[in-house]
Amino acid sequence: MASTVTNGKIRQDQTVLSRRRMLKVGGAAVAASSAFSMPYVFSRSAAQSEPLTFWQFYSEGAVGTQAQWFATMVDTWNAENETPVRLEFIPPPSEDYYTKLSTAFAAGEGPDIFLLSPSDFLRYANNDALQDLTPFLEEDAKADFYEGVMTTRIVDGKILALPMEVEPIALYYSVPAFQDAGLTEADIPQTWDQLLEVGERLTTGDRYGLLLETRPGGYQVFMWYPWMWMGGGDVTTPDGRQSNFNHPGTVQGLRFWQETIEREIAPRESLGPGSGDVIANLAAGYCAIQNTGIWSIAALRENAPDFEYGVFRLPVPPDGTYTTDAGGWAFAANAEGKNPDAAAQFIVWAIGSMQDDSVQRVVDWCTEAKSDMPPRQSVLEQATAAGAYAEGTLRTFAEEILPGARGEPRTPPEVWQLITDAIQSCQLGGADPARQAEETSQQIEEYLATYEGARIL
Amino acid sequence: MSVSDGGVGSERFAARPVIALPPRRRWRREHREWLAAYLFLAPDVIGLLVFLVLPMVLALTMGFFRVSGFGDYTFIGLANYQRLFSDELFVNSVRVTAVYAVVLVIGVYVVSLGLALLVQQRLPLIGLLRSFFFLPHIVSLVVVGFVWQFLLVNRVGVINKVLAAIGLEGRSWLGDPQFALGTVLIVTIWFLMGFYMIVFLAGLQEIPPEYYDAARIDGASFWEMFRSITLPLLRPTSFFVILVTMVAAVAGQQGVDLTVVMTRGGPDRSTSLVTYYVYQQAFEVGDYGYAAAIASFLVVLLLGLTAVLFALTRGGRFEFD
After folding, report:
1. Which positions in chain B touch A417 (Cβ < 8 Å)?
2. What is the structure's pLDDT at A297?
3. Tell me: the pLDDT tens digits for B163-188?
4. CB atoms within 10 A of CB B288
5. B284 touches chain A (CB under 8 A)
């Protein structure tokens, strides 16, 4: 560093960049950039706090009609109301939806409105995260929803979510595969033994006869429930306080799923995201019969319109009673969101009002955008009058599959994780179903002994 | 007239050619240098504290609480840690992770070193071969998982088609508990081998070629040179590879990513690593406190394993005669 001495004082050359000067310049640059960005930060955060965020997995999904339904609904609301709603796409449950939703709530940044399934319901209900929708619903509208569909969304008399659909499970079969095996509609199985027999005839070197869910998780449990119920089994006693998992019907259901793997009728893995994807599996020729739900009709209509298929209800075991699982998603409002009341008003306006547009909106969702059974009487009447369930596979669902269906249970994740472990052990691990059912029943019993929350249904 | 031409006052300065600064000014100069040093270090240190140390401390603390995931924190002391050893699923995940870690460390070491020895040769297009082996490492783990899942499907997957073509029976590589963990390990080694190949390559190039020349003159075979020259002189690199691979095996992100995509911890919990179990407890069950306790256990385990490794290698110091 250059310096000169003048009159006994040392002066440093100001033209050379010193450490001190560099620090001063650097600090000034940081301060300037922060000051410049502040208005942007404040204005951006201010702008973001206004619309209600609506998390769902349809607005950028594979089915265009479903994305359009959501967009139209939100656009109509925004045109008529002061508090706007903004759609935010989150990848579907087969990928990341549950994780992102729970993480957002844990960070105190949960969406204002979101889609909620029965398997996840208690996590939010038990933590008072759901806005009570009851005050916003007309009495006629409350009565319009089917009791079996609403029961799992009500806690202590409060309606905490509104179902948008009812999704029963069935078996889809490939017509070309049936023809290749010399089978006709007359061979459609009515019993479990017949299903195994037909499955074996349909199995070839490149194709499995039957596809059941093998990936562990809540979806596997959802698909397996009716195979337990048909034999009289259940997760808990009717009051939800004790385990009933060691029932013979449970053992029977575990044994059947195990047998399909042992006899190599069903694969150990499905293609794509899982057995809920009918395009990657049935339509691709990977299997001849696939256990999936009513939503697959819309998926096939959009993505494989030329594929010939049929549907039939789940076969029954010896001395069993037919039933199936009727799932479906619901709209829910965040009780700690920006404006829970406005969120509740939006939900009721969208799918829970007796107004013509609200009823029509659910009709459009169930019969045009997607393929579902309606959760409300008025919607079923209107859709039926329009001929939506008059023919084809929707008619089969309406007349043969849905009658006798039972709503998807609401169980805490601690319980359905035990159940999926039991299914995995028997189906893929070869465990003894009776011993496994007993062991899992004891684990469920231990959990229920300390469980504090809404009744498990 | 100035000091320099012997003018007024110049005799005072001639007797003292070096101008001594007063003590107070010297102390401030040193202090300013310290301040400058700390200010330059500050951004990095603040970043480490905020994004690494603070989350670690919070995570360790969370293990002593029941966390609802909705803003409720209830202090429960050591209850989460006591639960660890009676939790069969956790014990199973530790067992799976132990097998995974041992096989991964050995597999990565052997494969990467072998590839490094191969690509060290001066052959045409050897650079292309090095790039080819490194390529898997630049692909997203999620994509890797999906692609391999597709290749490995029983009956219709490419792998089983090839096996059938050469007369071997295909398997459900990801759907059978007997094969799933091994399959995930093979995919993981395939993903990591290129990176560690580069690390070993750098280590091999540090070995003076004169040693090999002298050994060849003495008639040593390839294996004798490998045992007596390559392996000993690769000790620092080997230590690094083993240490980093071990940490990756026990607590690495690749374990969770591939497990989530390919197997979701199945079939029958045969690929449920500890890291995946932490993910499940946190994001599927919503028991963040318990997940934090498991993660803290992992930290302690890793510290212990690292301490053992350092102790065996005398602090990672390698001296050569």
Report:
1. 280, 284-285
2. 94
3. 999 999 889 999 999 999 999 999 99
4. 23
5. yes
- CA dist A121 and A151 (Å) reads 12
The conformation of residue A334, written as its DSSP 8-state character, comes to: B
**How far is the CA of B79 from the CAs of A418, A450, B93, B154, in angstroms?**
21, 14, 20, 44
Q: Which carries the bigger pLDDT value, residue A113 or residue A39? A: A113
Q: Return the residue matching tokens 């579907």.
A: A92
Please report where in the chains the tokens 């939010």 appear, as a residue: A124
Q: Which residues of A31-60 are buried (b: 16+ CB within 10 A; e: fewer)?
A: eeeeeeeeeeeeeeeeeeeebbbbbbbbbe
Question: Beta strand A9-12 with A162-163: parallel, antiparallel or unpaired?
Answer: unpaired
A233 by DSSP, 3-state: which? coil
User: Can you read off the two tokens belonging to residue A412?
Assistant: 């805490």
Nearest CA in chain B to A427: B268
**Could you tell me whether strands A330-333 and A113-116 are parallel, antiparallel, or unpaired per DSSP bridges?**
antiparallel
Among A166, A87, A161, A165, CA closest to A124: A161
Residues of chain B contacting residue A10, judged by C-beta atoms under 8 Å apart: 19
The encoded tokens of residue A100 equal 């992102």
Judged by DSSP in three states, B202 sits in: helix
- Write out the two tokens for A204: 């070839």
By CB atoms closer than 10 A (0-12, 13-18, 19+), residue B281 is: buried
Contact between residue A275 and residue A290 where contact means Cβ atoms under 8 Å apart: yes
The answer to whether B156 faces chain A, any CB pair under 8 Å, is yes
What are the tokens at A353? 């009002």
Residue range B96-100: mean pLDDT, rounded: 97
For residue B170, give the chain A residue with the closest CA.
Answer: A205
Contact of B251 with A411, CB cutoff 8 Å: no
SS3 B266: coil
Contact status, residue A38 vs residue A49, Cβ threshold 8 Å? no
**What is the DSSP secondary-structure string of A113-172?**
EEEE-HHHHHHHHTTT-B---GGGS-HHHHHHB-HHHHGGGEETTEE--EE--BEEEEEE
Dist. CA A329–CA A144, nearest whole Å: 17
Is B89 in the A-facing interface, judged by CB distances under 8 Å?
Answer: yes
> H-type helices in chain B, by residue range?
10-15, 23-48, 54-62, 79-84, 88-119, 126-134, 141-152, 158-165, 177-205, 209-217, 222-225, 231-233, 235-251, 253-262, 274-280, 288-312
Nearest to B260 by CA among A291, A279, A271, A273: A273
CA neighbor of A392 nearest in space, from A410, A367, A369, A375: A367
Q: Tell me how far CA of residue B93 lies from CA of A232, A255, A319, B49, B181, in angstroms.
A: 34, 26, 40, 31, 12
Helix (H, G, I), strand (E, B) or coil at A446: helix
Contact A268 B283 (CB under 8 A): no
CB spacing of A102 vs B283 below 8 angstroms: yes
Span A194-241, pLDDT tens digits: 999 999 999 998 899 999 999 999 999 999 999 999 999 999 999 889
Query: What is d(CA B312, CA B141) in angstroms, rounded to the nearest whole number?
Result: 33
Handedness of CA B205, B210, B215, B217 (dihedral sign): positive
Indicate yes or no: CB of A215 within 8 angstroms of CB of B36: no
Nearest to A57 by CA among A95, A20, A29: A95
Which residues, 6 or more positions from A409, have their beta carbon under 8 angstroms from its beta carbon? A118, A119, A152, A225, A235, A456, A457
Comparing CB atoms, the residue among A23, A108, A269 nearest residue B175 is: A269
Is B266–A19 a contact, with Cβ atoms under 8 angstroms apart?
Answer: no
pLDDT at A115 over 70: yes
d(CA B194, CA A166): 50
Nearest Cα to Cα of residue A55 among A118, A102, A13: A102
Residue-wise pLDDT tens digits, B115-158: 999 999 888 889 999 999 999 999 999 999 999 999 999 888 99
Strands A9-12 and A309-312: unpaired
